[in-house]
Design goal:
heterodimer; A: six-stranded parallel sheet; four-stranded mixed sheet; 54% helix; 11% strand; globular; B: alpha/beta; Rossmann fold; 11 strands
Chain lengths: 463, 202
């Protein structure tokens, strides 16, 4: 993936359609969030509280997991535990097989993507119906999500239109987005209602009731998990909250940070399977609690990352994401939060370019609803990459040389003085090219140094 | 060792009064201001916000419900057939003026639901599943009609009374089934309802 990131980023930068598509959705999200935050007086204090709630849960995760498990079981649900992504997939596939499932309806879940559930279901020969409109689009295109809230944000309407015409039985008659959405509605309705198993993620797991909370604007989670005989929830263990009221505080932050709305259109708390005289709902409810590196993150300096509620604000506001989109990152999670998570999930050796692809402008940290210090965590990966010798020889030698010079002030000042003179040889006011620095100057001009170095000028003034 | 035991063993057994700490985290929570003297006005304003985009009708008593429903459905052609939940509170009324659909059409019709509470802060309706209240019709219909009593209207989400036991599903409806998945453009009626009509009693 190492060389891959630079290649993918270069391809993404050269794709004019991608830039337009990303800019439309992320730009709108940025503006809507700003309006929503401005309308909520104490938003900054609310962020601090949200972070404190998540920190409390992470500190007492064992306690809340046990409490949640006991309450979910009391409500009639079955709870399963998975150490790894493969274990989680095996549990879900086994449950599907036991239910005799030919097809499953799946409501978008980033955890499902993280553990590779789409692939595992395909290998088991189980048909998968993605019910979130964006997930449906990328399923038809055979692609991966490029954003955690808008997985198909990289697709233009023309591309979606072509996909639907090729794959829907009764495609749209006119080329409008409304007509395309209706085509998907016709297509997905029947597929959803005929599924044997419904699979969802969880936005929150409520410890004191054993409830599983999902949020959607499309209502596809409810349509995916209510009709089938079996409902399977896959959830990361960091999704716990102590109570409904804690969930409410985080829901206010989540909706505003993601879409700028005060709340999602459909917010549902599922507690166990169908009751004795209920008219609908699944007969079995299974909850798969997935670790997949989370306890390790907690113990290895990434506990703050477990606060993440997956709103996507960090990527919407990231100058790098806005240029290259989500696919270039190569992992399940893109943008700043992805650059922190991917080294944990896929290994640092395979993803050391991601923490480097950051300008450290701090915008992600400013908008994060749970105040995750993303730049600090990214710097942590950079330091680890250095300690483990993963940086290329050229970088290592250059930094070592710089460090050697920087520790000798007289030499450093001499070098700076020489560099100022030397740089003036390449241009009077603007420098367009410098030998050996072609990779840098090919796309950039820089102003030529005017006059003396800072230290020389400073010394002169002191006199 | 089972995965459960292995995961729990890696997580410290807690120390201190976890419950007291959790409660302290909720002291004086920041939330959008709601004028307690103008709950209905705030609720109505939230319902008309573009993201919720619900219509609101107000009636004096539940006896007027069938007439109000017939008037709403009559503004659409063809007039959608209505699914009524097996809730005695609405079943006992005279529905002769409305075309009923006992099975709930897979697409295109209308469904009525009785909310247990409403929230002014967000314009949300709180729905609970019960033997008298199935969930699916509210997601299948094109027109979602929700009836709620004014006296159950509360200021904030936290103020909704907790049920004695959680129903199979408690769901907050704050608008219709909408999507912005194609180029960020908002489309109503993605999978479920395209219209939300709220009838407030009292």
């Amino acid at each position: 993936m190492n060389a891959g990131f630079k290649l993918r980023a270069a391809e993404a930068l050269a794709d004019p359609l991608l830039k337009v598509a990303v800019e439309r959705t992320a730009g709108t999200a940025e503006a809507k969030r700003a309006t929503a935050v401005a309308a909520f007086d104490a938003f900054e204090a609310a962020r601090t509280r949200a972070a404190a709630i998540k920190d409390h849960v992470i500190a007492h995760l064992g306690h809340y997991l046990e409490q949640f498990e006991a309450n979910a079981i009391a409500a009639g649900a079955q709870v399963h535990w998975a150490e790894t992504a493969d274990d989680a997939c095996r549990i879900v596939v086994d449950l599907c097989r036991r239910a005799g499932a030919k097809s499953v309806a799946r409501s978008k879940s980033m955890l499902g993507e993280e553990i590779g559930l789409p692939h595992a279901l395909a290998e088991a020969g189980i048909e998968r119906v993605e019910t979130d409109l964006a997930e449906h689009i990328i399923q038809l295109a055979g692609e991966r999500p490029s954003h955690i809230v808008w997985p198909a944000m990289h697709k233009t309407r023309e591309q979606v239109s072509d996909l639907f015409r090729a794959r829907h039985a009764e495609p749209h008659a006119e080329e409008t987005i409304t007509a395309m959405a209706e085509s998907a509605r016709r297509h997905l309705r029947t597929a959803m209602l005929g599924a044997d198993v419904g699979i969802s993620g969880a936005n929150f797991l409520v410890a004191d009731t054993g409830a599983v909370c999902t949020v959607t604007n499309e209502g596809n989670a409810e349509l995916s998990v209510v009709p089938p005989r079996v409902h399977i929830v896959t959830a990361g263990i960091e999704k716990l909250v102590p109570s409904m009221d804690h969930a409410i505080h985080l829901l206010r932050m989540l909706a505003r940070s993601a879409t700028g709305a005060p709340l999602t259109q459909y917010t549902t708390f599922y507690t166990g399977p169908k009751r004795a005289r209920d008219l609908d709902g699944p007969e079995e409810m299974h909850i798969v609690l997935v670790d997949n590196g989370r306890t390790k993150m907690r113990d290895e300096g990434l506990a703050e990352m477990l606060r993440c509620i997956r709103c996507g604000a960090c990527m919407n506001h990231c100058v790098v994401f806005r240029q290259i989109g989500g696919h270039a990152y190569g992992g399940t999670y893109p943008g700043p939060m992805g650059a922190v998570l991917t080294p944990t999930l896929d290994g640092l050796a395979a993803s050391r370019d991601l923490p480097q692809a950051c300008t450290m402008n701090g915008k992600c940290q400013e908008v994060c609803p749970v105040r995750i210090p993303l730049p600090t965590l990214l710097r942590g990966w950079r330091e680890k990459s250095w300690r483990e010798g993963l940086e290329p020889v050229s970088t290592r030698s250059a930094v070592r040389l710089w460090a050697w010079v920087a520790r000798r002030p007289w030499l450093y000042r001499l070098s700076a003085r020489m560099a100022v003179r030397a740089m003036c040889l390449f241009g009077r006011r603007w420098i367009a090219a410098i030998p050996l620095a072609g990779a840098w100057t090919r796309h950039r001009d820089l102003p030529a140094p005017q006059g003396r170095t800072f230290m020389d000028q400073y010394r002169r003034r002191q006199r | 060792m089972s995965a459960r035991d292995a995961i729990l063993r890696r997580l410290d057994t807690n120390s201190g009064d976890v419950a007291a700490e959790a409660r302290a985290l909720l002291a004086l929570p920041e939330r959008p201001a709601v004028d307690a003297r103008a709950l209905i006005e705030t609720f109505a304003e939230r319902l008309s916000a573009p993201g919720v985009a619900a219509s609101l009708d107000r009636i004096e008593s539940v006896e007027q419900l069938p007439g109000a429903v017939a008037a709403y459905l009559g503004t659409y052609a063809p007039v959608p057939a209505l699914y009524l939940p097996p809730d005695p509170a609405v079943q006992r009324l005279d529905w002769s003026s409305v075309a009923l659909d006992a099975a709930c059409a897979v697409d295109g019709g209308a469904a009525l639901a009785v909310a247990s509470a409403a929230v002014a802060e967000t314009g949300s309706l709180v729905l609970d599943t019960a033997p008298t209240a199935p969930m699916l019709p509210n997601f299948l219909a094109l027109h979602h009609l929700v009836v709620v009593r004014a006296k159950t209207l509360v200021a904030h989400l936290e103020d909704v009374p907790a049920p004695a036991t959680m129903p199979r599903a408690r769901y907050w409806v704050t608008g219709v089934s909408g999507t912005t998945d194609i180029e960020g453009q908002y489309v109503r009626g993605a999978h479920g309802p395209r219209f939300l009509h709220v009838i407030l009693i009292g």
